[in-house]
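Handout, section 4.2: multi-component inputs.
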Amino acid sequence: MAPLGRRLWARAIDVALSLLILFIIGIFVPAPRLVAYLLLGVGALTAFEALFVIQLGATPGKLATGLRVAELDRPRVDQTTAWTRGLVATIGSLSLILAGPAVLVMVDSVAGFAVGGLALAIAGGYVLSIVTFPSHRGVADRIAGTIVVPFEAPAVVTRADVDAEDDRPRVVTAWGPVAAIESRRRARAARLDDSPLLVVALVAVTAAWTFDVMAVAIALAVLFAVLLVIDEAARIGRDGGTAGHRREGLAVLDEATGEAPGRGPALARAVTLAVFWLFPPLLVALAIWVQLSPTGRGPHDLVAGTVVVEVPGGAG
Amino acid sequence: MALPLRDDSPRRTFPWIVVALIGLNVAVFLLLQPPSLQRGEADSGSLSTADERDLDEHYSAWGAVPCEITALESRSNGAVCTEDADRPIIDRKPVLLSLLTAMFLHGSLAHLGVNMLFLWIFGAAVEDRFGPGPFLGLYLVGGIIGTLTFVAFNTGSAAPLIGASGAVSAAMGAFLLIGPRRRILSLVAPVPLIAVTLPAWALLGPYLVSQLVTPDDTAVAWQAHVGGMVAGFLIAIGLRFGIPEPGLSRRARRRRDSAVAPIDPADWKLPDRPPVEA
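Output:
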């Protein structure tokens, strides 16, 4: 909605003001307290962003370039929304400010490479999200549920308007719409809700880890992984979903028949998933895969020929 | 090893005391404690000699030194320590006050971070149940009892005890009483399945066990953790008599009940015909 050029000018003005604030904080916090300086900086810049948005509807840079922040479906920006947006935007623009020093730190040492690389990655991701996402709604806007619009935009910007500009249609199968990634994540978190045996096994694994006997801890972790795969395959094969899926109103169905997939495919699915569980950074790759897939199916769904759909009316 | 991220306790009010305590601990660590701590030099062992002496004096001045607390007077006034006697001796140290100040000091960013995370997760729920005043009392008294437990196990030592762990353990002990079956979204470290909801007993039970089997030669004051946790549990029993469980609104209770109600797999229906034209 808001043109990109004006967005960038607005951000440039805000970054200049932020540098002024950081300079003032630097006068009060002596140099060796780097973490204190950074934390106070984040707090002050968040307050700067949030209070301007709450009181005037936009930060000084946006006001100067004729832009304002609008919360979707609301006439004015809510307090919590403004602070959330302020915090995310601050982390983004602070990494942007620190991008230069980050490059210098990266050549310094291994730890410096990691920290500087993280700052660069955050700065890059923040800028890329604003430039490439639909309606130029970057990470901050998406997390807070806001959008940056010109002054003359209608007083209430509705989610439907924004979705209409979003060019990606919702995937619908013969058995229902494909589940959103967020509800699939929530379903996964409630995975152990009706498996007390697995909870006990998990407690054993965590407890074993503190006894300092590596072999036992590893053996128990492997045992837990095997139990989890078997349990997952049995439940999905028979019921078409786990406790978490039921809570979220989702079902895992065979794409061809619309029935629960049965033991064989469910086992293949669980084993494929286990590969990702075993090395948690891979879970990020899995999430991106599912997000980018035109049919909303990850590798585990492709292997088993299944699809995760929302059950009409919700299952529970 | 399991890190809690979020719990499903009902929230009726904002946990002001918990937030204030976290703010206080963070501010003390970042602004008042020696800057070498936040630069990570103390963790990596790259302290200069002057910084190291500075840090030792700081801990001895504001931490709880067991032999001083046993004798109820500072070492400069004649308290005799039998272990670690080479620690710096501080003039005019307020010994009783150090029971309190030790609770707000931390030894590293990781120490601070883990303690504050546990305080936020477990403390907020306890504050919501008992109210801000009683919670603050539970936190402070639990922390002091934790420190005294540590002192009782090491009466002759001059090695100072620091950290909010005892007080945070008190909040965890109280949580174990008020909601052992509440569910906590946690990161479980060395196993697959990255974040799952676990009942509180599955987190706090192994924590207590792991404290009891901690070897004595580590820098962890496990006695303070156990003492704090038991104290928190007992104080919470007392508080529970005095402060009846505040009634949730009928709507909130219905929402809570419907959220945790298990679903019989027999009722779990799959769509039997295509709901949309494909």
